[in-house]
Design a protein that fits this description.
This protein has 482 residues and is mainly β. It has 4 domains: 185 residues, 3-Layer(aba) Sandwich (Lysozyme-like); 83 residues, Immunoglobulin-like (Sandwich); 84 residues, Immunoglobulins (Immunoglobulin-like, Sandwich), CATH 2.60.40.10; 80 residues, Immunoglobulin-like (Sandwich), CATH 2.60.40.10. Helix content is 14%, strand content 39%. The strands form 9 sheets. The protein has a 6-stranded mixed beta sheet with strand order 1-5-4-7-3-8, with helices on both faces. The protein has a 5-stranded mixed beta sheet with strand order 19-25-24-21-22, with no helix packed on it. Strands 27-33-32-29-30 form a 5-stranded mixed beta sheet, with no helix packed on it. A hairpin with a 2-residue loop joins β29 and β30. The longest helix is centred in the N-terminal third of the chain and has 22 residues.
Length: 482
């Protein structure tokens, strides 16, 4: 009677295997599997595929059908997810979402899949080619679904399972699959089946080359049906995009990273076990965002209208807000950034002008200018006294060595229509109100001597010229921090 039952069971499994194999045309898909669920000798669970981080290779130490019957029996107090015959047939006894009792170590059981192979650990016959191929296809399918790396750290033998006391082989110190199991052959087959029939995929980060500043575009170029891209900075995931074209929305604000070298990574995922990773190293070189102004010196006494002109340095300004005594008075969004305030219309005493600039990359720079509004009084008109137009002095001198930002101010004896600032014969700017000032970025000039000429223009024009030397930057200037 027992023999008859085994024959009926074998016929049913063979029929089920035939149906499944006919439905699976892709060799990289799940291999033919017959489902013969056991009861009472495993732990019911709901673990997701991505929680599986090990596949454990076992040997039955007995015949295929006898091992299947024993592992289905609750009295065995042991089970396995799959059993593979020497013929290559596969029987599944425990669902992948449930925990089989196969390793003799609970932590390993909870996060692994057990695969038994018909045979003997030290048997002279070893294992058949059909077994290797069926097992490799099964392992490749599990690895693709669970994103499991195909290597010896994640596909192990029962003899490598810890026993909880510093030993190996689980609680019973098993040694299977033993010396006859050909690991190199097996892993080659697993890798081949894992990529068989799959479209080649790739992901490439697209970012600007060279030193980068401010907000830069960052996207991922993909092929092979990638459906999700993870963007990481220095190993930390900062964005996940699930829709092509895969981009870092709004661009990457490099001012949040700090100057120096940073690693950008894109991780493109097409499905279980199908992914690609690529990295790019960028060098961030953001200049400090700061403000300079002309038209009002701190703590000076003012009587009438104050005309303030502000220039941003290190980045473009998106907005420039002018505040007087804590109250916002005006907002400019385009240069030139000009602001006028009439001290004659306010109470005499201290008043504070403040400029708050926001750069296009989100940085904020402030400048605070305290002034003293003079008491109001009436002067008797005096006949105008003609004063000869002269250039009395300037903040740069002949033979001076300069570097970086130079504040070039000029003092004039009379009120000209404008004061022009000329560098090497080229007009670089003009000012119409004292103090007549130009912020000259000498770092943009070639090292060496340069002629600086200032012209005061009224009914006639007077000028003065000095020669300064722009110092060469240090040899290591601009080099990114390691």
């Amino acid at each position: 009677m027992a023999l008859v039952r085994l024959r009926v069971l074998a016929a049913a499994i063979a029929a089920a295997a035939f149906v499944v194999s006919a439905a699976q045309a892709d060799t990289a898909a799940r291999p033919p599997v017959a489902w013969l669920k056991g009861e009472g000798n495993f732990t019911k669970s709901h673990r997701p595929m991505h929680s599986i981080d090990r596949i454990v290779v076992h040997v039955t130490e007995g015949a295929f059908w006898g091992s299947v019957q024993w592992l289905k029996n609750p009295r065995a107090h042991a089970s396995s997810h799959f059993v593979i015959a020497r013929s290559g047939k596969i029987v599944q006894l425990v669902h992948l979402s449930d925990i089989a009792w196969h390793a003799g170590h609970w932590k390993t059981n909870a996060a692994s899949v057990g695969i038994e192979h018909e045979g003997f650990t030290y048997g002279p016959g070893g294992f058949s080619g059909e077994q290797y191929r069926s097992s490799a296809r099964l392992t490749a399918w599990i690895a693709r679904r669970s994103l499991l790396p195909i290597d010896r750290a994640h596909i192990i033998g029962h003899g490598e399972v810890p026993d909880g006391n510093g030993g190996r082989g689980g609680a019973s110190h098993h040694t299977d699959p033993g010396p006859n199991w050909q690991w190199d052959r097996y892993l080659r087959l697993v890798r081949r089946y894992a990529v068989s029939g799959l479209q080649k995929l790739s992901v490439t980060p697209i970012v600007p080359t060279g030193p980068v500043r401010g907000v830069i575009p960052w996207r991922a170029k993909t092929t092979g049906g990638i459906g999700r891209v993870e963007f990481s900075i220095n190993g930390r995931v900062v964005r996940v995009d699930r829709r092509a074209p895969f981009t870092y929305a709004g661009g990457l604000n490099t001012t949040t990273l700090g100057n120096g070298t940073h690693v950008l990574q894109v991780h493109g995922i097409a499905g279980p076990g199908r992914y690609d990773i690529a990295r790019r190293t960028i060098v961030v070189d953001n200049k400090a965002f700061a403000l300079t102004s002309a038209g009002a010196r701190p703590w000076t006494k003012v009587h009438g209208q104050v005309k303030l002109r502000v220039r941003p340095w290190g980045a473009k300004a998106a907005t420039m807000t002018f505040v007087v005594d804590g109250r916002r008075r005006a907002v400019d969004r385009q240069p030139p950034f000009l602001f006028a305030w009439n001290a004659a219309r306010v109470k005499a005493g201290k008043h504070v002008l403040q400029v708050v600039a926001t750069s296009v990359d989100g940085r904020v720079a402030k400048q605070r200018i305290p002034l003293v509004a003079a008491k109001r009084f009436v002067l008797k008109p005096k006949p105008p006294v003609a004063t000869a137009l002269k250039i009395l002095g300037q903040t740069v001198s002949d033979g001076q060595q300069v570097t970086g930002l130079v504040l070039w101010r000029v003092e004039v004896s009379a009120k000209p229509v404008r004061v022009e600032f000329v560098v090497d014969g080229v007009l670089r700017g003009a000012d119409v109100a004292a103090p007549y000032t130009l912020g000259w970025n000498s770092s943009a000039e070639a090292p060496g001597a340069h002629r600086l000429t200032v012209r005061a223009v009224a009914k006639k024009t007077v000028e003065a010229t000095v020669t300064v030397t722009v110092q060469a930057p240090p040899e290591n200037a601009g080099t990114a921090a390691p």
